Amino acid sequence: MSATQILNADLHCHSVVSDGTLTPEALAVRAKANGVELWSLTDHDEISGQSRALAAAHAAGLHYLTGTEISVTFANVTVHIVGLGFDHLDPALHSGLHATRGGRSNRAMEMAEGLAAVGIKGSYEGSLKYVGNPELISRTHFARFLVETGVCKDTPEVFRKYLTDGKPGFVPHRWASLKDAVRWIADAGGIAVIAHPARYRYTPTEEYALFSEFKAHGGRAIEVVTGSHSPAEYVKYADMATEFGFAASRGSDFHSPDESHTDLGSLPPLPGALTPVWALLADRIHYAPAPAAAG
Ligand code: AMP
Ligand code: MN
Ligand code: MN
Ligand code: MN
């Protein structure tokens, strides 16, 4: 199968290596069962799951692209940049991601102080129970703890009441720069992609600045069809991809069977006229070995 024949690509999801609840192996099996042909595991700020994901993809008969989702601060807003098809042994990418993960533990302790001040005790220790990677404690782990202890009914409620800007458990954080994140990915042979662009609280002018600077730094694609976008937003970002000359990506952003409303492989296809990002990455795809002939 050539890259351009692939329709069901799911190039965004999370495992226990960041804030997902499934292992890379379980995700590969689930992706295959849901009809995915080309898969990428894109853990936040972390690529230590890539070898496992690649092996599991091939065991399940899936083509694989290496992946990650880097946290970036642009114009005082957190933006996520997905990287696809890079060399996962690249030393500069490793050290850049290591530095990006660096402040998470201190941030988490400050988050717990903020929550304690409104009467929610022990949330740092409580959240740690859900953490699969000690370098990657995230807001999602706090959300799971607050749901388990009955403070909120589900994770969206936790974010709304406690973990977003201005709420008691929110701690502003400075992540990687846009320029560095794009450079780490591109220098490792991959393509940088703006994740779920509709999710950022930018004015149209600020959004234009993000897209322009991203392109100037070497960014080449945006997510168009994602679990975070509405059908109207597929159309809006398809038009913006065309306007900026970006390729388009597709990914569920699946985290957990209990929490995610979009399952692996379940999104509609990319709108027709766009260049799929995986067509630009044909020589970076780790193709699944052909199944052994019967008999
Ligand atoms: P962090 O990297 O620690 O800031 O955590 C960011 C993660 O929190 C995202 O990748 C999502 O998995 C999750 N998240 C952010 N906003 C929400 C929300 N409104 N509802 C549920 N999960 C969210
Ligand atoms: Mn996440
Ligand atoms: Mn994201
Ligand atoms: Mn994500």
Write a structural description.
By secondary structure, this protein is α/β, with parallel strands linked by helices. The protein has two domains: 3-100 and 175-284, Metal-dependent hydrolases (TIM Barrel), CATH 3.20.20; 104-163, DNA polymerase, domain 1 (Orthogonal Bundle), CATH 1.10.150. It is 38% helix and 13% strand. It has helices spanning 24-33, 50-60, 91-101, 104-116, 123-128, 139-148, 155-163, 178-187, 204-216, 231-244, 277-280, and strands at residues 9-10, 38-39, 63-64, 67-74, 77-84, 191-194, 221-226, 247-251. The strands form two sheets. Strands 4-5-6-7-8 form a five-stranded mixed β-sheet. Strands 1-2-3 form a three-stranded parallel β-sheet, with helices on one face. It starts with 8 loop residues before the first strand and ends in a 15-residue tail after the last helix. The mean pLDDT is 97. Bound molecules: adenosine monophosphate (AMP) and manganese (II) ion (3 copies).
